[in-house]
Amino acid sequence: MTPTEKLLTLSKCYCALRGISERTASGRIFRDSRVILRVKTGGSITIKSFERAMTWFSDNWPENQPWPDAIERPTPAREGV
Q1: What's residue 29's pLDDT?
Q2: For the residues of 6-42, what is the DSSP string, one character each?
Q3: Which residues contact 22 (CB under 8 A, 6 or more apart)?
Q4: Taking all residues of the chain, what is their mean pLDDT, rounded to a whole number?
Q5: Is the CB of residue 22 less than 8 Å from the CB of residue 15?
Q6: Structure pTM?
Q7: Cα 62–18–5 angle (5° rounding)?
């Protein structure tokens, strides 16, 4: 699975679990509601932005919901705090 596929899979799953739009999630993650749509339509983001998004998803994933099996989960930043 490519980084783009990972990002879009997490976005789709997270939005479905939370009942929000991808624009809303994109705004929360990137402070820009258009980033996820841009990636969906062939755009790209930096590695730093990808890593920040992965950490954001991990930190904000609903506790009672499983993380997608095909994607390695980063250690949540708030663990041990």
Answers
A1: 98
A2: HHHHHHHHHHHHHT--HHHHHHHHHS-TTHHHHHHTT
A3: 11, 12, 15, 36, 37, 40
A4: 94
A5: yes
A6: 0.89
A7: 85
pLDDT tens-digit series, residues 37-74: 999 999 999 999 999 999 999 999 999 999 999 999 99
∠ CA 47-39-16 to the nearest 5 degrees? 105
Residue 66, helix vs strand vs coil = coil
Which letter does DSSP use for residue 75 in this model? P
Residue with tokens 């990002």: 7
Cα–Cα distance between 50 and 64 in angstroms, integer?
24
Contact 68, 1 (CB under 8 A): no
CB contact set of 33 (below 8 Å; sequence gap of 6+): 23, 24, 26, 27
Q: Which residue has the tokens 């998004």?
A: 53
